[in-house]
């Protein structure tokens, strides 16, 4: 890579591909029993009396087709390699760095409850000492700093979660390639009578429909939960649905227009601006911490669900390797990075900086400068507003950046889920197996369509660029007003109002993604359960 390209990529980063391979399952080599050998001879003999065209089996890519009677000898593991007899273990995940540990801890229930306790203490302080301007500015500054930090952690959380999910999906597609190859090496698969009647087409190994076994599997984790955790998760889910609904959007803007309507009563004073800033500060604190909490819950649940599906996948591979005595390692599967426009690369660059230790370092430098000039401004209200203005404006941009990155990553992940479904369909067609019915997507209501349209608009790259332009305009206005209290409030008020609404949209986007993940995982699990049952039936021939 040339020096210019390295310099260009450092300014505008290029997303790296996700490459992974599924751990190879090594079946123990064993001497074929008479029954197994008789089954192979019976199948081969039956095929030998078929017409010549039907006695041809596809071989490895790049090689001509061969007759069943002339199949090459099966691959056997080297006698000097004991590793070929054991299952390859999945590489342990890399150790979390300090920043990643902080990110994960910030999404815990303890942090969420702790933030609610701090807000409650602030409310009590207002009742005791009065709702003064200083009391309101204290909340606004604290909220701006907290939301700014939370946005940084959300960017990091989003990046880590997507990398982990895409790696798992790459491993599943790696194993799918091996399963397809192994199936073609087993002559029983093409001619086995897979289903005697339509009523049995979804039966699993236990004799019950795959849907019932799949639903029972999903309930195992719920039964292992404590009652308190179960109630907590259900409550968070209900609150998330409420905050991401069209009714919440409407209620939010009704409150904003009511505040505008009472402006003449307060003569549009600084106190009038402080009222809405304080209200939105409380809303921002709650929604940002709540979003991080439910996003961490979703990642944990999805990780456990995919882990179960991966175990079934590994079992299918192991049984097929035992039948085919094929020990070729699973191939490396690569998910290419998505194509990005210049504006999207700029957004990625901003997200990479703010979602890393660089963003944290820059924040600490700004805080240090703010503290150092406090005595020059005599620690007055203007000084208190400076840090809130900085964190508020940067946090405002972070919100749009986060929504854009989230939207593009969702498109990428959904495409990989569709690729897996297409590969599964090819395997089922190869085996002449009917596929389980796909999960039914509920019809969308007017409320859902409107809220999704708002979310899609906020996720556009042009919207993120527009947020940067708006910040520069506000900075120019504040400079003209010599950074007075009114000038800083003009910077804070519109950005806090828009950011408050944006966080509701982010919760709505989380809800949509959560529903899609549930349907996608349900389909993956059904297909793996049915395929596993079929492979087990092959071993009984």
Structure description:
- One of its GO terms (biological process) is transmembrane transport.
- Residues 69-90 are annotated as: Disordered.
- Residues 79-89 have a biased composition (Polar residues).
- This is Putative low affinity iron protein.
- This protein has 16 helices and four strands.
- The chain is mainly α and 541 residues long.
- Helix 5 packs parallel to helix 13, helix 11 crosses helix 13 and helix 13 packs parallel to helix 16.
- Residues 29-87, 193-206 and 218-223 have low confidence and may be disordered.
- It is elongated, with a radius of gyration of 29 Å.
- It has one domain.
Concise overview:
This protein is an all-alpha fold and 541 residues long. Helix content is 70%, strand content 2%.
């Amino acid at each position: 890579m040339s020096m210019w390209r390295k310099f260009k990529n450092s300014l505008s980063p290029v997303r790296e591909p996700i490459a992974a391979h599924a751990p190879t399952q090594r079946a123990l080599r064993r001497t074929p029993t008479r029954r197994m050998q008789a089954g192979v001879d019976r199948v081969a003999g039956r095929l030998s009396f078929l017409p010549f065209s039907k006695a041809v089996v596809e071989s490895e890519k790049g090689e001509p087709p061969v007759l069943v009677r002339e199949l090459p000898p099966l691959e056997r593991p080297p006698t000097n390699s004991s590793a070929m007899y054991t299952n390859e273990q999945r590489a342990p995940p890399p150790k979390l760095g300090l920043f990643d540990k902080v990110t994960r801890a910030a999404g815990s229930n303890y942090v969420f409850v702790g933030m609610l306790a701090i807000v409650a203490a602030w409310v009590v302080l207002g009742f005791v000492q009065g709702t003064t301007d200083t009391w309101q500015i204290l909340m606004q500054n604290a909220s701006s700093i907290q939301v700014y930090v939370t946005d940084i952690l959300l960017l990091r959380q989003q990046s880590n979660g997507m990398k982990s999910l895409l790696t798992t999906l790459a491993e599943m597609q790696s194993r799918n390639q091996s399963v397809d190859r192994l199936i073609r090496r087993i002559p029983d698969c093409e001619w086995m009578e897979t289903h005697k009647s339509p009523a049995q087409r979804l039966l699993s190994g236990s004799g019950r429909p795959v849907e019932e076994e799949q639903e029972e599997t999903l309930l195992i984790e719920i039964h292992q939960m404590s009652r308190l955790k179960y109630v907590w998760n259900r409550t968070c889910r209900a609150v998330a649905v409420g905050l991401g609904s069209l009714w919440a959007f409407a209620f939010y803007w009704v409150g904003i227009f009511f505040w505008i309507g009472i402006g003449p009563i307060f003569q549009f004073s600084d106190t009038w601006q402080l009222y809405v800033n304080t209200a939105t500060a409380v809303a921002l604190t709650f929604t940002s911490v709540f979003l991080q909490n439910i996003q961490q819950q979703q990642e944990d649940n999805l990780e456990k669900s995919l882990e179960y599906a991966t175990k079934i996948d590994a079992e299918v591979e192991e049984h097929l390797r035992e039948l085919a005595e094929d020990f070729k390692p699973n191939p490396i599967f690569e998910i290419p990075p998505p194509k990005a426009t210049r504006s999207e690369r700029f957004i990625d660059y901003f997200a990479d900086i703010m979602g890393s230790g660089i963003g944290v370092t820059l924040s600490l430098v700004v805080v240090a400068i703010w503290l150092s000039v406090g005595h020059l401004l005599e620690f007055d209200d203007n000084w208190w507003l400076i840090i809130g203005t900085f964190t508020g404006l940067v946090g405002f941009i972070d919100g749009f950046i986060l929504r854009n990155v989230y939207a593009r990553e969702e498109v990428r992940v959904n495409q990989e889920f569709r690729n897996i479904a297409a590969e599964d369909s090819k395997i089922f067609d190869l085996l002449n197996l009917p596929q389980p019915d796909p999960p039914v997507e509920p019809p969308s209501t007017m409320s859902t369509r409107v809220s999704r349209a708002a979310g899609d608009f906020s996720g556009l790259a042009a919207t993120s660029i527009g947020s940067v332009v708006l910040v520069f305009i506000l900075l120019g206005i504040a400079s003209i007003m010599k950074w007075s209290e009114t000038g800083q409030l003009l910077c804070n008020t519109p950005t806090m109002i828009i950011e408050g609404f944006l966080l509701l949209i982010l919760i709505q986007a989380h809800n949509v993604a959560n529903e899609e993940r549930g349907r996608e995982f349900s389909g993956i699990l059904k297909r793996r359960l049915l395929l596993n049952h079929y492979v087990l039936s092959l071993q009984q021939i």
